[in-house]
Design a protein that fits this description.
The complex is a heterodimer of chains A (410) and B (141). Chain A is α/β, with parallel strands linked by helices. Helices cover 24% and strands 29% of the residues of chain A. Classes of the chains: A alpha/beta (410), B alpha+beta (141).
Chain lengths: 410, 141
């Protein structure tokens, strides 16, 4: 069997490991437009902070490709998929044939049209190692940095460069930071942490026009800066599949075996639509755990194996200036809330199951809540008030503990 | 393979397992000097609500969500044992968010820690050796 994988990040690595769990022999070719050994993208902010380095941020050991019998074609881009010929064309004219192919092409930073953006000399995105390296080159101790977007990428970028520049201003069209994962009250705690470090956050505002090192804001104010980072959002890299006639709807459509609508073509990671079991709808879950598990399932299926059913939901762990945040699921239904000086907790439940949570400060054992959402555990079967107060296995009862802790099957 | 199992009915709630675990992973040779005036961070924890008590430690899951979720590749499962490479871990807490048993926890020094079945502490989990009432056992089930 001949396998081709487009991509070299978490979904691609998951696919290699999935493939090899079924087929130790088949030929695997990995194509990546980057030239690096597989690395963890979320670590680029830690790299700038000095909390990891190029060696340690490798997602798999140095001998990963060798051990798994992978041929690598780095620095090449897949430009055209021809599913009827089971062939993919690369930018250097090479055509690779395959029995099955995985598109693990990830996502790209979305830069909205902003007037005068081309006049900004130092403008960066913050998604890849190249982005991080380019940004790092531009940093200087007095630099005034403007970050457009107060989401996960924008704020991790702010943390990554904090202490290495003169001033950081973050602005967002939304009324608070981390709008996709936090409610207003939770965001206020995070904002306070940012502001206590001297990071200037401007909510509810956008840039009307750039002019060199100046941004004219929608509220009329002008902001001078030396370095601009846009972190507004990401878009799935779905074009390869879409242009070949595969179905997409924002992201690439896949079934439970990660098959696209194109024969022999699979997809996984940030470029696909995933089923969010916390709300029952399809959405882009651009998070690394989802990429890995989708890739593993795809690889297993590509090699003719039966992938284990996946239960996917949004979940994010983020640390910012020492403040830890864990969130998962959807924020709908009734709410259990607890707050003290150190921490903030909100649990959302409806239809007899936990739907989502926000934890700030104290995130110890958050996975117990994640599991309740993932398994859609009927709350009537557990001591829900107890688990609301503190995540522990007490609330699950003796039978559950006998099975999980004592290995008893009945 | 052998695993740590809990006999809940025998647990006294004495928390000796926690102290033996913390000592075993302290790198020190004397228990008292390892634990005196230290906030211990054991990899096994007793849960006790006054009515029931038992110890909880990593289940070394066959499909470990901590491992598949790890953003750095620091968590791996080999020969049935899940270990963490503290040098690669950046303390992002994604494993904490993922573990259904709440058994991966911060070291307090930036990385995460978890039960590694005392692989480097003689091979028999010290919580098991230290349990006075057979409430924690290391056996095949």
């Amino acid at each position: 069997m001949k396998y081709v994988i487009i991509g070299n990040s978490a979904a691609a690595v998951g696919a290699v490991e999935g493939l090899r769990s079924v087929d130790p022999e088949g030929a695997i070719t990995l194509v990546s437009n980057e030239t690096y050994h597989t690395y963890s993208r979320p670590l680029i902010s830690y790299l700038l902070q000095g909390r990891t380095d190029r060696q340690r941020m490798k997602y798999r050991p140095d001998d990963f490709y060798e051990t798994n019998g992978c041929r690598t074609l780095f620095g090449r881009t897949a430009v055209k998929l021809e599913p009827e010929k089971r062939s993919v064309l690369l930018d250097d004219g090479t055509a690779l044939t395959y029995d099955s192919l995985l598109v693990a092409a990830g996502s790209s930073p979305f830069v909205p049209p902003m007037a005068g953006l081309e006049s900004v000399e130092k403008h960066f995105s913050f998604m890849s190692l190249d982005d991080a390296n380019a940004l790092e080159q531009a940093l200087f101790p007095e630099a005034r940095v403007l970050i457009v977007g107060a989401g996960l990428i924008g704020l991790k970028c702010a943390e990554g460069i904090f202490g290495r520049v003169g001033k950081i201003t973050v602005l967002d069209l939304a009324a608070h930071v981390l709008p996709s994962i936090l409610d207003e009250a939770g965001a206020a705690l995070v904002q306070r942490a940012l502001e206590s470090k001297g990071v200037d956050f401007r909510p509810g505002v956008s840039v009307k026009r750039f002019s060199g090192g100046s941004a004219e804001l929608a509220d009329g104010q002008a902001l001078a800066f030396d370095i601009l980072v846009t972190a507004v959002g990401v878009r799935p890299n779905a074009a390869l599949v879409r242009d070949a006639g595969g179905e997409t709807d924002g992201g690439i459509l896949v079934d439970d075996k990660m098959r696209t609508t194109l024969c022999g073509v699979y997809a996984a990671g940030d470029c696909v639509l995933s089923h969010d079991l916390s709300c029952g709808s399809a959405r882009i879950l651009a998070i690394l755990p989802n990429a890995y598990s989708g890739g593993f399932a795809a690889g297993t299926a590509m090699a003719g194996g039966e992938p284990a059913p996946r239960r996917t939901l949004p979940m994010n762990a983020i640390g910012l200036f020492g403040l830890h945040i864990a969130t998962a699921g959807s924020y709908t239904g009734e709410v259990y809330q607890a707050q003290d000086a150190e921490s903030y907790k909100k649990l959302f439940y409806s239809g007899g199951v936990l739907r989502g949570y926000i934890l700030i400060g104290d995130v110890d054992r958050a996975g117990i809540y994640t599991a309740l959402i993932r398994e859609q555990t009927p709350l009537s079967q557990i001591d829900f008030p107890a688990v609301c107060r503190e995540p522990s296995l007490i609330a699950f009862g003796r039978a559950y503990r006998d099975e999980k802790l004592a290995g008893k099957k009945d | 393979m052998k695993r740590v199992y809990v006999n809940e009915e025998w647990c006294l709630g004495c928390r000796l397992c926690e102290y033996h675990c913390a000592f075993a992973n302290s790198g020190k040779t004397h228990m008292a000097s390892a634990l005196m005036n230290v906030k211990i961070r054991p990899n096994i924890r007793v849960e006790d609500d006054g009515k029931v008590c038992y110890a909880v430690s990593c289940r070394h899951c066959e499909e470990p969500l901590c491992v598949t979720s790890c953003i750095t590749g620091a968590l791996t499962r080999e020969n049935g044992v899940i270990t963490i490479d503290g040098a690669r871990c950046v303390g992002c807490f994604t494993c904490v968010l993922s573990c259904p048993y709440g058994c991966v926890r911060p070291t307090g020094q930036g990385a995460m820690q978890k039960c590694e079945l005392c692989l480097t502490n003689g091979g028999v989990p010290r919580c098991v050796i230290g349990c006075p009432n057979n409430a924690i056992v290391f056996e095949e089930r």
